[in-house]
Specification:
about 400 residues; five-stranded parallel β-sheet; Rossmann fold; 2 domains
């Protein structure tokens, strides 16, 4: 705790080259004289009082005969954390500094000190003093001759002003420190909230991806197909662009499970999904529709382009056996292709209708002997009528 603020004695420095003046001030202020007993002093310290048992302010006064000596006492008091509240400075103190220079040098080290300049009418004018010291609310001029009441009132008022100013400054500093600490805490909390929000968004995105991803094949799942195909159809209508759907099914997949086990069957499904991903564009997407059946959605693709993609998948599957723990298994795929042409059925087609036509085409591929690509009946194109574009 700052002793300079909370001490129950009011410290005053008297600076004058005349020793008799010092004695006069001590008599006026009661400084250096016997005060109340120790109990009264303790009560004043405990309860914040600044007065002795008689109700008079209690002052502690030090003396200096020259400005240089006064500055040394000021520096010492600051070092001990027992600053003076005010100082009475005589204007003329030959051969050293005068009162104005002493005040200026003291304020360089202790700007809070209240100063009373004791000056005769023949000394500097107020304008001269203001020019040298500037306008300050810490400076009071006491014209000589002065009476005891003036000195006592100045001492009482200025030391109390100093105490209140220092107390306010300490409280402001404490508040600023608390605000800074709370601001730091809020910044840390804000940073933590941002991190949590990012983590939450990442977690939500992970949950979203898990909810629309087939865990075995790594493709989209049927839930995603049901939602996104509707949006693809809406985009196709809005921009009058064709939309094609390829439905692919692995031939005799049950035989693979029966002969090599479900683990090998899972490996075949994953290998086929990899083949599908390698056969399509970045704008296309794949869904595991169920079991060994997949749906490939081809935005902005007309029937011939969709047939070419489907044939690429069929040939790739037939040409490259899929590695499994049971060895490399040769599989084939049957595919059906349907298209939504904006000029023909864009206003009436639905996701279910489009998938239904692709599924019917797939059924015809299987009925015709499997390992082939068949277009939907509504496009008027049969597998024997088309070739892969060069």
């Amino acid at each position: 705790m700052d002793k300079g603020i909370d001490s129950f004695r009011r410290r005053i420095l008297m600076v004058d080259d005349n020793p008799a003046i010092h004695q006069d001030f001590r008599k006026i202020l009661g400084a250096g004289l016997p005060t109340a007993d120790a109990l009264a002093d303790s009560e004043a310290a405990l309860f914040g009082g600044a007065d002795d048992a008689s109700g008079r302010p209690t002052f502690e006064m030090d003396s200096a005969s020259q400005g240089q000596e006064a500055l040394e006492l000021i520096l010492s008091s600051l070092k001990e954390n027992r600053p003076y509240a005010m100082a009475f400075l005589d204007m003329r103190m030959p051969p050293g500094w005068d009162g104005i220079e002493t005040a200026a040098r003291i304020w360089e080290h202790d700007p809070d000190l209240q100063i009373v300049l004791c000056t005769a009418y023949s000394d500097y004018s107020w304008d001269d003093m203001r020019e040298r010291l500037g306008c300050s609310d810490r400076l009071v001029i006491l014209k000589k001759p002065f009476d005891n009441v003036e000195v006592l009132q100045l001492a009482d008022a200025l030391t109390e002003k100093w105490r209140l100013a220092r107390q306010a400054k300490a409280r402001v500093a404490d508040l600023e420190q608390r605000v800074e600490a709370q601001t730091c805490d809020l910044q840390k909390a804000g940073s933590r909230i941002v991190q949590l929000e990012r983590s939450l968004r990442a977690s939500n995105e992970q949950v979203r991806l898990l909810s629309i991803t087939d865990s075995l094949a790594g493709t989209y799942n049927r839930r995603y197909l049901n939602d996104e195909l509707v949006r693809e159809i809406e985009r196709s209508r809005r921009y009058s662009r064709p939309l094609s759907v390829v439905m692919a099914d692995l031939d005799h997949f049950k035989r693979i499970n029966d002969e090599h086990g479900h683990h090998a069957g899972d490996e075949v499904l994953r290998g086929f999904a990899d083949l599908l991903r390698a056969s399509i564009r970045q704008s296309d997407w794949i869904t595991r529709y169920g079991g060994e059946e997949f749906v490939i959605v081809l935005p902005d693709t007309e029937i011939m382009g969709a047939m070419a993609t489907a044939e690429k998948i069929r040939l790739g599957c037939a040409a490259a056996p899929i590695p499994t723990a049971s060895g490399r298994l040769k599989v084939t795929a049957s595919l059906g292709v349907a298209v939504m042409e904006p000029q023909i059925n864009a206003t009436t087609d639905t996701a279910a209708a489009l998938l239904g036509r692709a599924d019917a085409a797939l059924y015809r591929s299987k009925s015709a002997g499997r390992n082939r690509v068949t277009p939907a009946a509504d496009v008027g194109l049969w597998s024997s009528e088309w070739t892969i574009p060069k």
